[in-house]
Specification:
- The protein has 24 helices and 5 strands.
- A 3-stranded mixed β-sheet has the order 3-5-4, sandwiched between helices. The protein has a two-stranded antiparallel sheet with strand order 1-2.
- The protein is globular and about 75 Å long.
- The mean pLDDT is about 95.
- Bound molecules: zinc ion.
- The site of zinc ion has 4 residues, from helix 14 and helix 15.
């Protein structure tokens, strides 16, 4: 069905409450696993409809934030969803009490029970006052960030608008843009430190309420991690520091020489070429047409997918007045349809919508057709990012449709940025482990930890002339650190898998595509570790994995100069 024709009906909470009660009673009284599965499936149908309606409201409201009807419906959803969550929790608890667990696992998917147990142990009602306070602190940070206006280039602008200046080919402009950003953070130093301090104390209290020494185990559970804990993540970071950082230091030396610089400053880090990075050719329509051609060329499966997407109006990518910012990929389970929302701006980020976001959408499209229970359709976050980040690489033979003569430039910077990101992501992760393990650190002590980690993970960078960064406060720009604790290493793990898919594809395009397809087709029925192994790849936190990736990528860059 076309997106514009999908009907919206506000979910009936009373009816859902009755259904939840019936489902719980049905689960409790059922005489067999098959009977229980039937009750669960019936509730799930209603659940999918609520999710579809909520997504329709969110998408339509984002496309036109001025629309009064969907603004009102969005408000209704915001207050209704927690109530619906509670109903879902009741059903899940009843399912967990099942005496037929093994048989039921065969019918619904074994991982469902593991995931439900994690969800159940990450919440108890006593947490609620602390959670409300946590939400308030998070939104204080978001408000501060969103309200930030700075003077630059004779204009007053919000912080993200400094982005293009930070990538200017004029080094003095880049430096000035970083200084301007740093000044904003310096001016709000106390506020930013106080918010974070309160967040650490709050989350530590939540961890203790759940019976832990600190927040870390609860933080992992909240992300639904079902196959690794802090020890494996530490082993991953260790490999990155030991085996990958030396490789990237060598790559950074090459970049520095290419730029003709004596030393690489923070504001040179993402400058891959002295004359600027690659930008796509043509208009937004040209980019969309190239996307169609790309997925037709890649495989029969992606051809079917992209036709479905375009024919059913499942993407809205042009910027227009009143449209909400940013980009995302959403799901409409009633129609087995993904939806892509974006704001094209004429940079290579527009191409990312068609390679990265479409990778998420493709995985959703495939898994939605496999008959999995909804709760097992999508895997954990790092595995979802494998879908998208790998697609960025597996579409390699078609990037020339977007970049023309700049294609090689794009490939080089995409490769360098992808691998160069991993140490930064590890730094963000190790920082969080350190501060949650030591919740009483002072703001200055926290900054000292960050500086120590900069030397460990990014020894090639120089900050000396930038006061905000050289006092070790650079972490305050990273939204995830405030908003979503421990969610960041996910991107590093996913990137390590994407790079492995890419390396494998260099020798065997067909075979690698089949493995990627099988990975996506398993949806969330397997853990991250199992998915990676099923594709014949190495799990990033296992010994030796990162060294191999680093050396292969370095070799590719040597063989493919500009
Ligand atoms: Zn993504």
């Amino acid at each position: 069905m076309k997106f514009s024709e999908m009907p919206y009906v506000r979910p009936d909470l009373e009816q859902l409450k009755t259904l939840a009660q019936q489902t719980v009673a049905g689960l409790n009284n059922a005489g067999s696993a098959a009977e229980q599965a039937e009750h669960y499936r019936a509730f799930e149908t209603a659940e999918k409809n609520v999710e579809t309606m909520s997504a329709l409201v969110f998408i339509r409201h984002s496309i036109d934030t001025q629309d009064e009807f969907y603004t009102r419906e969005q408000d209704w959803m915001d207050q209704a969803m927690p109530q619906f969550e509670e109903l879902r929790q009741q059903v899940n608890l009843a399912l967990l009490r099942s005496p037929y667990r093994r048989e039921l696992g065969e019918l619904l998917g074994q991982l469902l029970f593991t995931n439900l147990e994690i969800a159940v142990r990450s919440f108890k009602p006593e947490l609620m006052p602390l959670m409300a306070e946590e939400n308030k602190l998070v939104s204080d940070y978001q408000k501060l960030y969103a309200s930030a206006m700075v003077e630059f280039d004779g204009k007053t602008m919000p912080l993200p608008m400094l982005g293009p200046y930070k990538q200017s080919t004029d080094r003095a402009v880049r430096k000035a843009a970083y200084e301007t950003e740093g000044r904003f953070f310096d001016e709000h130093r106390e506020e930013l430190d106080t918010i974070y301090d309160s967040l650490i104390k709050n989350r530590t209290a939540q961890g203790k309420l759940m019976g832990y020494d600190n927040f870390i185990p609860l933080g992992y559970d909240r992300l639904g991690r079902n196959c690794y804990g802090p020890a494996k993540v530490a082993a991953f970071r260790q490999q990155v520091a030991q085996d990958l950082v030396p490789v990237i230091s060598r790559l950074k030396k090459v970049q520095q020489q290419r730029l003709g610089l004596e030393k690489l400053s923070l504001y040179d880090d993402v400058m891959n070429f002295a004359d600027g990075n690659a930008t796509p050719e043509g208009t937004a329509d040209d980019i969309l047409a190239a996307g169609l051609q790309m997925y037709h060329g890649l495989s029969p499966e992606t051809a079917e997918f992209i036709d479905f997407l375009y024919e059913n109006e499942l993407l809205d990518v042009l910027s227009k007045p009143g449209k909400g910012p940013g980009g995302f990929c959403s799901a409409l389970p009633d129609y087995q349809s993904p939806f892509i929302f974006a704001n094209f701006n004429g940079t290579s980020a527009d191409v990312d919508v068609l390679t990265h976001e479409a990778g998420h959408a493709f995985a959703d499209y495939r898994a939605a057709r496999k008959g999995y229970v909804r709760a097992l359709q999508s895997p954990t976050i790092e595995a979802c990012e494998c879908h998208s980040m790998s697609m960025e690489f597996l579409t390699q033979d078609f990037h020339h449709l977007f970049f023309g003569k700049d294609t090689r430039k794009y490939e080089i910077s995409h490769c360098e940025d992808s691998i160069g990101f991993i140490p930064y992501g590890c730094m963000v992760d190790e920082f969080q482990h350190r501060v949650y393990e030591n919740p009483n650190l002072t703001p200055d002590q926290r900054n000292a930890v960050w500086m120590e980690l900069e030397k460990k993970y990014r020894p090639w960078l120089d900050f000396e002339e930038l006061p905000f960064f050289s006092r070790g406060a650079g972490w305050q720009r990273q939204l995830h650190i405030y908003l979503m604790p421990f969610y960041y290493i996910d991107y590093c793990m996913a990137q390590s898998v994407a790079l492995q898919f890419w390396i494998a594809s260099m020798a065997d395009r067909e075979g690698t595509w089949k493995k990627y397809l099988a990975f996506a087709d398993l949806g969330g029925t397997r853990s991250f570790e199992e998915l990676v192994r099923s594709a014949g790849l190495e799990v990033p936190y296992e010994d030796g994995c990162m060294e191999k990736i680093g050396l292969a990528v370095e070799q590719w860059l040597k063989n493919n100069p500009l």
